[in-house]
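To: structure desk
From: M.T.
Subject: fold request, one chain
Message: Could you run this one when you get a chance? Sequence is below, nothing fancy, just the single chain.
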Amino acid sequence: MSSPARVTMADVARRCGVSAMTVSYCYNQPDRVAPDTLRRVREAAAELGYRGPDPTARSLRRRHNGAIGVVLGEHLAYAFEDPQARRFLAGVAEVCRERGSGLNLIPTTGAADDVERVRSASVDGYIVWTTVDTDPVLAVVTGLGKPVAVHGGPAVPGARVVTIDNRASARELAAHTFPGARRPAVLAFPFDRDRRPRLETGPDPAGVVFPVTRERLLGIYDHCRDAGRDPRGLPVAVVARNDREEAAAMADVLFETCNADAVVAMSDQLAFAVLDAAHRRGLHVPGDVAVAGWDDDPDAGRAGFTTITQSLFAQGRDCALIALGERGAVRDAEWTATVRNSTREASEMTGFP
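Reply: Done. Structure tokens follow.
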């Protein structure tokens, strides 16, 4: 049995004896229609079962969808599990609320259908959350004629990057963490999309395809050279994800294999994994091991971590403004090194509270 034909705007116009344009005004610009005409059109629409203009067709005509697309280089749950992603998306959501725009989360994991999923999204602009240099999605979003913001990099023509200077911040953080250490080490973000946890010694940053990871590693190497230390001997433990529990095994490796006495971790969550591993061994922070991270999570402040302070919330706002075409409203992302008592420079080495 065939379904009944969909009632159209033209059907309503014929019933009322008005033009289809008048019916359109009744729904889209009712202030342009006389009250009596507006009443008659609405009554006829109710009698015929007309539900109003098709929003998809309307957005195609106007080339406006009323939504921002956030391309996540992760599974969808990551947006709600990762503290960094949550703060960033909160900034995006605030701009969406202010501008009356929707938010479309588009997960990508390197699968074959990523490109088509991103291309077909009904959005007015894109935000790409920290992806790899070779991600084919980048060419897609920058080729659609829509505004694009890339958080963390890479820099590509047709998009604006929103990020702190990760290399400079890493150089400074290592300068606060490594002094006095004989066996410094790094707990790093993933190097590539295979997300294989592993321990490497002095890995070549050129082989790291996540720009944030690469820039932070380069900055740490810069400090090592400043201090007369050969970075080719630096142990770097690579985690699968920015997750405190998942990183526990690699934090253990830094103590069991490397006997680390100073660790720069690429986030506060990873720094907490190092702290957990130290506590399991009865080690004192910073007397036995200095620890530092990134982002200045609220918990990091309460715990007294030395960290790089940045506002992912503000960066989310800036990315959203770019995706909505408001490029002039965006400033360079700010950062500062917040030195507390998890590193030796800022303490009397009496232990971590």
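Reply (cont.): The CA atoms of residues 146 and 212 lie 24 Å apart. Let me know if you need anything else for the meeting.
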